[in-house]
Amino acid sequence: AQKAATLPAFRTRVLPVVVVDDADHAVDLARALWAGGIDAIEVTLRSDAALAAIERIARHAPEVVVGAGTVLSAQQLHQARDAGARFALSPGCTPALLQAALSARLPFVPGVATPSEAMRAAEAGYSLLKFFPAESLGGPDTLRAWAGPLPHLRWCPTGGITAARVADYLALPTVAMVGGSWLTPRSALQAKDWGAITALARDAVQRSATGAA
Ligand code: 3PG
Fold first, then answer.
1. What is the whole-number distance in angstroms between the Cα of residue 20 and the centre of ligand 1?
2. Is 130 considered catalytic here?
3. Chain centroid to CA 17
4. Residue ranges per domain, the chain?
5. Distance 204 CA to ligand 1 centre (A)
6. In this model, does residue 213 exceed pLDDT 60?
7. How far apart are CA 110 and CA 90, in angstroms?
8. Is 184 in the pocket of ligand 1 (CB under 6 A)?
9. CATH number for the domain running over 14-211
């Protein structure tokens, strides 16, 4: 079987999940996260501005590794790659999406919510999976249980995670990183309060350091 491309290197273990409404703010946002110690960002394809935002971050803030989130189709995967996304994530995984990412050689993190889905994604060549929606599905306890029969899989839990939970997830050896939107509240984005976002990033980085094994 083909093996999925590995994620580009970045050091953050906390991945901001962002809805960008105005591409003009994307570079400032990426730099604000960077100033707080975060060197990767997931721009979700949930807004019209998303692809333009990815393009601008890739071009003007290359120190931040930009990924595309909420990728639901092969077409969106290709659009994200063409815009400059260096990896992609999805809340789920379809055979078409798994195959498209392999063919495009774009590092891809498929979303799963059950062991069967995880096993199917692993069969297709993927070993880093998104656990979504993490908090609703039992949080770290569920991943701890899955680590028994599925010790070879690595996880990026997202969905309902807040700063207070970061260390709980990262304490698990199977958790590679956690994702969430708490780092980039819409109110702060609209107010262009980059200082607030840098502070949230710094706080998350501190918590991720204490969560490290
Ligand atoms: C995602 O797409 O990963 C989630 O929407 C992030 O979940 P959150 O908004 O609850 O952090």
1. 14
2. yes
3. 6
4. 14-211
5. 16
6. no
7. 5
8. no
9. 3.20.20.70
